[in-house]
Amino acid sequence: MLLVVKLGGSAITDKSKLFFFREQRAELFARELARVLESGRKAVVVHGGGSFGHPIASKYRLQEGGLTQEKLLGFAETRYWMNELNQRIVKALLRHGVPAATVQTSAIALAEKGSLHELNTAPIERFLEMGLVPVLYGDVVPDLSCGMAILSGDVIAAHLACTLRASALIFLMGSGGVYSKPPGTPGAHLVRELREEDVIDVGDSRGVDVTGGLRQKLEYAFKAARCGARVTIGGVDYLWEMALGVDAPYTMICVSGMRTP
Ligand code: IP8
């Protein structure tokens, strides 16, 4: 059984503070993932940019493409900080005995007009066969028509869930799931089952976000659910429950004809 886990930037960084890594959340994530792997499941991890990737990409407006000297510097700087964040996450996983091995996204991905064009999954599949846990991340990548583009970890995670026929796709977010209104707003409650026709107020993501926030996440969550993966969105605290299909406070993405765990 293969799981794709998208570790959102909001779950492991404070998106309102530049380069603020939430060490204890990363530790909890690593501990819970180690527990999930003990049950015999395999996993691919894809993490987001949080306050390491988004502010730098936004400073150079990399999401608009381009290939000027300034943009190339922005590309290199974003890659540097994404690598830094990746190292911290991998370090936490190693501390908990998870054989996490980074597969650098911009080396295997191509975009076209800002959308994913090609992702070479061969290195990921090879790592999985060996028993490793491949770790990818949202990244700045070459774009065939506009020089460069930002590929969100949500897009990569949904794509991998479909192409590798994962049994589950788990989105981990700082907010702990999808709320009827932005969390903290009076009357906001956790939506336990979300259908495409449901209307929710997605609000604005906290801090800088160059990849579309919750609205885009939900679009890709439904896409992966239609491919047959069990898709859930929740907090790091309930990773084990989401992975094993145990009921807990998280959001389940529901599409018609869905398989049950
Ligand atoms: O946080 C974006 O990935 P996301 C990565 O998963 C960068 O949307 C470089 C901003």
Please provide a written account of the structure:
With 261 residues, this protein is of the alpha/beta class. Helix 2 crosses helix 4 (69-95) and helix 7 runs parallel beside helix 8. The chain is built from nine helices and twelve strands. An eight-stranded mixed β-sheet has the order 3-6-2-1-9-11-12-10, with helices on both faces. The chain has a two-stranded antiparallel ribbon with strand order 4-5. 47% of the residues are buried. It has one domain: Carbamate kinase (3-Layer(aba) Sandwich). The protein starts with a strand and ends in a 7-residue tail after the last strand. The mean pLDDT is 95. The radius of gyration is 17 Å and the shape is globular. The site of Isopentenyl phosphate has 17 residues, from helix 3, helix 4, strand 7 and helix 7.
